[in-house]
Protein: FAD-binding oxidoreductase
Organism: Prauserella oleivorans
Amino acid sequence: MLIDDLRRDLPADRLVQDPDVIAGYLHDDAEWAPHGKPAVVVRPRTAEEVRSVVRACVRHRVPLVTRGAGTGLSGGANAVDGGVVLSTELMSAIREINPMERLAVVEPGVVNDDLRAACAEHDLWYPPDPASAPWSTIGGNVATNAGGLCCVKYGVTRDYVLGLQVVTGTGELVRLGRRTAKGVAGYDLAGLMVGSEGTLGVITEVTVKLRPLRDPEHTVAGYFSSVVDAGRAVAAVADAGLTPSALELVDRHCLAAVDRWKNMGLAVDADVVLLGRTDTPGAAGEQEAERMLDCFHRGGATWAARSTDQEEADALFAARRLAYPALERLGPVLTEDVCVPKAVVPEMLARIEATANRHDTLIANIAHAGDGNLHPLLITPPGDDAARERAQAAFHDIIADALDLGGTVTGEHGVGLLKRDGLAAELEPAVLGMHRAVKAALDPHGILNPGKVIPD
Amino acid sequence: MLIDDLRRDLPADRLVQDPDVIAGYLHDDAEWAPHGKPAVVVRPRTAEEVRSVVRACVRHRVPLVTRGAGTGLSGGANAVDGGVVLSTELMSAIREINPMERLAVVEPGVVNDDLRAACAEHDLWYPPDPASAPWSTIGGNVATNAGGLCCVKYGVTRDYVLGLQVVTGTGELVRLGRRTAKGVAGYDLAGLMVGSEGTLGVITEVTVKLRPLRDPEHTVAGYFSSVVDAGRAVAAVADAGLTPSALELVDRHCLAAVDRWKNMGLAVDADVVLLGRTDTPGAAGEQEAERMLDCFHRGGATWAARSTDQEEADALFAARRLAYPALERLGPVLTEDVCVPKAVVPEMLARIEATANRHDTLIANIAHAGDGNLHPLLITPPGDDAARERAQAAFHDIIADALDLGGTVTGEHGVGLLKRDGLAAELEPAVLGMHRAVKAALDPHGILNPGKVIPD
């Protein structure tokens, strides 16, 4: 029996079989994605313990789902019937922060914001900043190749992963990647693990690249009377050759929800707010902020200004980060994550608006607008099945529109369960075949997060 | 017969069977790496033609070696007996430069410097700049994940590849990756292709990310009386938290060889020259240059100054780029490519010096010192077999020292043939097993550049 093996190989307190406790490990934050009932939850403390878990799963051919904080939005961490859920929550040590090599070595359960804070003490910066940064873990960020607000200038998690320690699908504990600044010794298997959503290996340690702490940012805020106008301002910023350090779109549904929750006194006398930032130092930064402001005006802003009040600017960005949990309080939220070429951001936003009308569905919008990564949030009243069906139809239309405009079905949340059909629509059959071949090569027993990512 | 299939499927002028012409396609620029005698060289013009070649090779189980300009330094493009050599030289169109999306789409045979020049017309910049940039192709750069001088600040080829069109080992023509700024739809197969040295697919198109043209650079030059002192200055730059846009080391052997060849009037009254650059705009850049100068002095520079003469600065960097071909004129050069943590650059340079003495071998040094990527150049008199054996022994000792100091056997040149043993020494057996599994998954017939990268 699997359980006997786990009891033999792990200290007793690593196993969770109490159904009430297991209930907290059944699924991630993706509404409407199905989940199963696991046989057991394990919370290992070491890579060796993770290896024991994987080996037990290999011996008994039992599915293994790895999860960090469960903040994922695609169902990638959802439990499988009769399987094992492996939570990395007890592997939360920051092992090394090395200013000279500009790298950090962390266990997978380290919370993103905790790493950021620890780096700041050394005047260093770990850029990837998903909105879930206060809760999500580096292991989960790596597994989903998480993005965030500063990606528009600084790239995504993939761009910061130097090396990984991983337990493979055959139960081997291996090191992939490197600690040096450069290296091309063999295939980029560390890179292949990034974004593979627990289907190719279980991450037990992460080595990330760091940057020096950056200069304070200038903030530009703009109010618009439609998402399409705001989209035009975004396209204008790209067209002007600017490189903002953030360019976020938040609509009034989101601002109102945050305000009702946190009472932040946010101005919501606009349909859409666009928040731009630049961290270019000195006079060049001042100039960039002015040029961004000009783009906002050209996009049709009803009001726009450079923020002189740092607290006010921070409050607006905090509201952006809180938009998702704030909306969740109002009812089930189905989160989209399409990414389209910058030139078609206005067109895509217009299509989302048309989709909302066509399906009589409330769609709030937040977006990492600067890189065309849009998060329409489909909100339904709790218990209204008809509304839910309409929202599902809207969800599919948005995916189809994104593909039609040359975009992708997932910019940063991952495929998980919610985007498997989308993946099949986006990728050629031969490319799906390559996915299956790689999966079979590295997880020959098919135990690692089966049913996720790759369509049947 | 393979040849019959190729004659049937391709226009006649695509095939080369004249031994005198084939002689120019036998090997890359890696001295001492063995090569075979191919049955035919093909020069396709389109992705469909490439597919025909791969399919013919699959049908007849014939090895296929893909090559760009043949400037590789590890034997990765060396011909295999009885196989096909596919040259991408006729696929040299720049298909698109898109300022708004900040990307370019090119055929694999586009020369690196040609892409750079075309981008500059749009005020855009393609950063990866291997010293071979005037000759090497983007396809080859992608296949080897080429680095260069500006990697120390801007990263390597991998960091700029958004998408690829590839013919797989089963002869399917597929698109991997994306055109959008972000995307996590499935495994990062485009990333897996980067640096796989033609063993997983044949690249027929490359979509690269671009950056805005940057500000002019400030140059700092320092003379040192030993490589170890220069190494100390490099470590001081890293320790000071500076991010130079280039930090190159060139020793007097290299400068003298370039000067003898090009008559540039280079000052060679120092054993080692360190060249630093910063492109941070405005006053911050001035300050960074001053701080770099200070680090050079602290490292023990006998003379150091900020270059006020742009021509002189450019001449020094041109000399750096010409060092390798200049030395090649003097005799066979065996090029090393180890990369070590920045903190141990002085120690590694000291060990290289000791190795040169121990094996009575002339070792010249160029280095992308800022990221610890060292290129000791082992020079032997033509025809001196004993010297050649001593150089081989030195080559192996340098690899062993790099691994001992936590480095990698190849920072940017790739594994090819010369570093297969090094790869086996660097990677755990289980990781080599993962390489073999991925190779078998994507090239099930074993026709793509067999015998390269992965040790037997």
Q: What stands out?
A: The mean pLDDT of chain A is 95. Chain A touches chain B through 87 residues (CB under 8 Å). The CA atoms of residues 420 and 454 of chain A lie 6 Å apart. The longest strand of chain A covers residues 201-209.
